[in-house]
Amino acid sequence: MALMTAQEYIESLRKLNTRVYMFGEKIENWVDHPMIRPSINCVAMTYALAQDPQYADLMTVKSSLTGHTINRFTHLHQSTEDLMNKVKMQRLLGQKTASCFQRCVGMDAFNSVFSTTFEIDEKYGTHYHENFKKFLTYVQDNDLTVDGAMTDPKGDRSKAPHDQADPDMYVHVVERRPDGIVVCGAKCHQTGSINSHWHIFMPTISMGEADKDWAVSFACPTDAEGMYMIYGRQSCDTRKLEEDASIDVGNAKFGGQEALVVLDHVFIPNEYIFLNGEYEFAGMIVERFAGYHRQSYGGCKVGVGDTLIGAAALAAEYNGVEKASAVKDKLIEMTHLNETLFCCGIACSAQGFKTKAGNYQIDLLLANVCKQNVTRFPYEIVRLAEDIAGGLMVTMPSQKDFNSDTVVGRNGETIGDICNKFFVAREGVSTENRQRIMRFIENLCLGAAAVGYRTESMHGAGSPQAQRIMIARQGNIQGKKQLAKDIAGIV
Ligand code: SF4
Ligand code: FE
After folding, report:
1. Is-catalytic flag, 300?
2. Long-range pairs for 129-134 at CB < 8 Å and ≥24 separation?
3. Choice among 116, 184, 258, 292 that is catalytic
4. Which of 258, 259, 360, 425 could cross-link 77 (Cys pair, CB 3.0–4.6 Å)?
5. Per-chain mean pLDDT for the chain
6. Is the pLDDT confidence value at 451 over 90?
7. What is the 3-state secondary structure (H, E, C) of 63-128?
């Protein structure tokens, strides 16, 4: 089958019976819901760019399974060049959407589950790898969006899954049948869940023998019986429901989405199971998925950073201060920080290696360093953007005020006249353009898109401490001690 167009992707979502709840109610037409649609447009961009000949090399690739041309978001990386192209593709998408475009979680799940299932089968003679290859071939041939779901609610963090007062704190098997399993539980703050065709569920921590029933990985359609989502709020999200507020929204076209995904006795047929009780492999999936997703942040967040740097430069230009050396220096600093993140994304890719299954894995230490930097640098980039933009980005009256013809002045001036008079930009720049860029910066720094740029930079792909644990494990302090001993003459 050919690659889907953006429109075909959007239409394909309408055919699903996905159950979505928001503000305490079921949303029937969630595809056209003004709070959800921008996140669908964002994923649609992964389809649109794949149709554009100028991005063909980055967005499409030959499948290692079928030889067909597929979207890179469904690809198994075959080389370090593939790994680097993945990061470049994510930067491009970030530049085009200024948001989280969500489809990466599935790509990262494909690559980690592919290599892990190979190693489980090698040890136990199971058929998970074949199951997975069949599933991925179907996904590639139909150009589907698949969500990678990892983060369980976790309940009492000091306790293992089997020790929790409520066993649903981690996704688990409640019934084993000859033809499959029945699962219960949930995944929290799940990116891109509602607008995916399928989900791959994976464990979220390393597990012991007592956690066997929680050591489970499988694919399931997004509208599977027993599965539903409760949509996550974002800062300033209801601006999207207001009339005449497209400028106030800041980025009216695109956005991310997160949801609580609930599995209430969902049946999973055997052919879609990729891990079922082999608890010692839970940690391998987690480590590999987290590694890939930490690499991803060296692409997507850099692309979004590009738009924020551009917006800050425009704000300075509109205010007539773009030549001030202090402003120039801040833009240099923002660029330096942003490109440092890109260096990390490229470096962990360039140092990648082939797994036993044949696909390529990133360098784990460098990917964790990449993400650790992402927990810091976007915050500094945001600080500098706010510094350049000025307070107006959070104090400006609404778009309705700028458009209002209510008379307030003694000479018949309207509210709109007054707003346009006092918020005027430099000559040659419309007040509306100044409004637009201020709201765009607000959106990225502390509005709806801040979910994807700020807080997700901190907690997405694992919180900073999770990377520090990996850095400690991979950092080889013993080897470094030996280097010092050798030179210092210590035996
Ligand atoms: Fe992709 Fe970045 Fe969103 Fe993760 S946070 S899904 S890598 S855009
Ligand atoms: Fe993320």
Report:
1. yes
2. 129/357, 131/270, 131/271, 131/272, 131/273, 131/274, 132/274, 133/65, 134/271
3. 258
4. 360
5. 97
6. no
7. CCCCCCEEEHHHCCCCCHHHHHHHHHHHHHHHHHHCCCCCCHHHHHHHHHHHHHHHHHHHHHCCCH
Token digits of residue 243: 């009339």
Question: d(Cα 329, Cα 320) in Å, to the nearest integer?
Answer: 16
User: What is this structure's pTM?
Assistant: 0.97
Instruction: Indicate if 344 belongs to the active site.
Output: no
Distance, CA of 490 to CA of 1 (rounded, Å): 65
370 noted as active-site residue: no
Please tell me the distance between residue 467's alpha carbon and the centre of ligand 1 in angstroms. Answer: 17
| Percent above pLDDT 70 for the chain | 100
Residues 85 and 83: their CA atoms lie apart, in Å, by 5
Atom 7, ligand 1: residue with shortest CA distance: 296
pLDDT, tens only, 120-153:
999 999 999 999 999 999 999 999 999 999 999 9
Which structure tokens are listed for 324?
């001030």
Amino acid at residue number 118:
F
- Residue of the CA atom closest to atom 8 of ligand 1: 100
Residue 102 CA: nearest ligand 1 atom is 6
**DSSP letter at 414?**
B
Indicate the pLDDT class of residue 1, thresholds 50, 70 and 90.
Answer: low
- Cβ atoms of 316 and 390 within 8 Å: the answer is no
Ligand 1 atom nearest 94 alpha carbon: 8
Question: How far apart, in whole angstroms, are the C-alpha atoms of residue 25 and residue 100?
Answer: 25
Is 258 part of the annotated catalytic residue set? yes
Residue nearest to atom 2 of ligand 1 (CA): 300
